[in-house]
Design a protein that fits this description.
With 279 residues, this protein is of the alpha+beta class. It contains 9 helices and 13 strands.
Length: 279
Amino acid sequence: MQKIINGLLCKNKILLDDLLVNAKKSDALVPEAAKKLDYYGIVVINNFYDRTKAIELGYLLREIVKDARTELSNNEYLETPKYYSQIDNCRLKTYADIASAGKPVFNIRSKNNNGPDAGFIDFFSIDILCASNQLFVECLRTLRSNNVKDIIGSVSSYNARQVNLYFNESVRNTRGPHIDKLALTYKCFLYLGDVTSDSMGPYSYLPSSHKNAFIKKANIVVNKIMGRSRNTDIPMDRNALVKIHGDAGTLIISCQSGIHSGFPQKNGHERIVLVDNYY
């Protein structure tokens, strides 16, 4: 199956430069970005948000994450006045459970079993927790600007529904290439720190893979037959994907039906990303 997928999906080598639009230099940001998003399933917008402000916000949110992690300590589940904390969805198990929780949810993936993405932190509804922080509010307003809505609106009728914070620190066992689902949902990833080398664990994507529904459906069937726990995983070399390096303030708009992955980090390296979900 891996040889079939590699042969069908990796025909033409696309480079990061092919996916880029520079927000400061483009006089036609929306149509240029929309065209790339439609064709490749992803567009990378440099200089989307002020780098200094992005880094400042990254420091602020990093401290919130570290405080929550310290507070959770060796517990598997903890309810605080402001949010819930848990290990690997132990209490709030499904996305629906988390979405209806009524307050933010701090979740550490696979901490106890060293599974895929072990140590990856996903802070759901971080916007509720930071609603009174002026810098965060300004950043989210920019992230949900008409430009972004128009770019995604050119290919989808979905709306922004959920704001998360992703924090990876020395995450080595990164989940391999996969899709989120067959539906053409979208995510906006805003780097809040420089991600300028593979050691930092850049987001990675196989351009134009959002178009190959038949191959992905067949792969899901094979995964189910083989009894694999994650039937949306794609058996292919993650090095075939384009690694998205960028400075803080870089925005990635990505179709999550396309094949994507994180990238293993080196010890002591981290990545912090604000994520807006369109579904």
